[in-house]
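A protein record in our archive is deliberately plain, so that people and models can read it alike. The record that follows is passed on verbatim for readers who wish to inspect the format.
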Amino acid sequence: MGELCDIYDINGKNTGKVFERGEDLNNGELQLVTDIWIINNNSQILIQKRSKDKEISPNTWATHGGCVATNETSLNGCIREAYEEIGILLNSKDIQLLTRSTSDSLIMDSYIVLQEFNISLAVLQVEEVSDVKWVSLNELKDMVKKKQFFNYLELPNVIKFINSQKLNKQQ
């Protein structure tokens, strides 16, 4: 049996129904997914390269995240996904909700955290991830233009967050 996920309505309310990841949802049913943007003290973003074997966007650089499991919050889901994918431990008290968006059959909760991480200690989930690295905001923007990095809807909010962090450091 595959990964089980809760079904949500358009208002983000859990319906009490469950489906197996990969199954089609009915009209009006949505799946909760999550991602996390990890930023270090140098305003760099920790990104990962999706495995060449991924069905969606193989060999594309991305942030960390995935499907929220049954009876799991999106916050706990992003913490679990980051740990499973690259071996980083995140503390929920340090994480902020960045955005919630709804499209098609998905509710996407995006989070952001300020945290250091030594990438030489990364433990990659090879089915999901082939590489990990820190990039500057300018490098990330360039990667998006070259279609090397997935163009997330919340990216403008990430940029705004990083720029506000830089301003706070200057004051």
Q: What stands out?
A: The chain has a mean pLDDT of 94. The beta strands are 4-8, 14-20, 30-39, 45-50, 61-62, 64-67, 95-103, 106-114, 129-135.
